[in-house]
Amino acid sequence: MNAVGPPVVTVTPAWLALREPADAAARALDLVEEVRHLLPASTPAVVHDLGCGTGSMARWLAPQLSGPQRWVMYDRDADLLACAAADVPPLTADGSRATVETRQRDITRLDQRDLSGASLITASALLDMLTAAEVERIARSCVDAGCPALLTISVTGRVALTPSDPLDDAIASAFNAHQRRAEEDGRLLGPDAVGAAADMFARLGAEVVIRPSPWRLGASDTALTTEWFKGWVSAACEQRPELTAATRAYVEQRLADAAAGRLRVTVHHHDLLAVPREPPDDR
Predict the structure, then answer these.
(1) I want to staple 280 with a disulfide (CB 3.0 to 4.6 A). Which of 55, 109, 205, 218 is the partner?
(2) 272 and 210 Cβ atoms separated by less than 8 Å
(3) Angle CA(25)–CA(29)–CA(33) in degrees, nearest 5?
């Protein structure tokens, strides 16, 4: 595989912009408080952002941390990296500058040399799109770098729609199976990703804290709710094609409810903070 690697998941700037406010509202703020105490006080913080997309993690986190920051952003997609470079984070909490460097890379192939000098490693909506082997490589790279890792907005497999419908559970089950589908490089972890990452970090000698970070979508989130719902059902029907005919009326009603502001959706996620301790003997 070359340094960049073939694209595996395609996302658009429009979708990332649509979800950015919901991600920002969902992330666990108490983990940010932990991060504040872990960053260097006398030197600029160097933050490596894995699978950065258009840079939403930096735009959310940089203003909550004090002092100058240098963000190193990694993604496979050159177009997304261009967006990230063009929309740099605002000033940090104390008015210092945050700068951005972009690197087009396969983030599952990074090693200690790539992350050398990092003060913090971050990612958002990443872990559930990886295989167990890829999560292990990332965990090892983070622990070898000797700095905390804040990995946010990973799906747990739990979704709640209000009003409820008997088909909700069938769609959720098929979607979760799709999230765990087999790929060329192995089976994706999907909803199992946070648990797998936590176990790996702990085995490598890191202290792990997990917090809930749910999307809570209501009448003011119609556009995001509609696009999320379409993608949720599409993935479920791709996994179980027999659902396509069975859900036509269901989809029509759900989309009408969303357009009218009647549909409420909670999409459960977890945030994970891993802080290396003493290096384990078996690495």
Answers:
(1) 205
(2) yes
(3) 155
C-beta separation of 46 from 70 below 8 A: yes
State pTM to two decimals: 0.93
Residues 87, 107, 228, 152: is their CA dihedral positive or negative? negative
Q: Are 209 and 277 in contact (CB under 8 A)?
A: no
Residue whose token pair is 């008015």: 95
Q: Quick count: other Cβ atoms within 10 Å of Cβ 101?
A: 12
User: How far apart (Å, rounded) are the C-alpha atoms in residues 126 and 35?
Assistant: 19
Cα 205 to chain centroid distance, Å, stands at 23
pLDDT digits (tens, 9 = 90+) for 65-78: 999 999 999 999 99
Alpha carbon distances (Å) from 19 to 14, 33, 63, 71, 171: 9, 23, 19, 21, 21
Bridge-based pairing of strands 98-104 and 69-75 is parallel
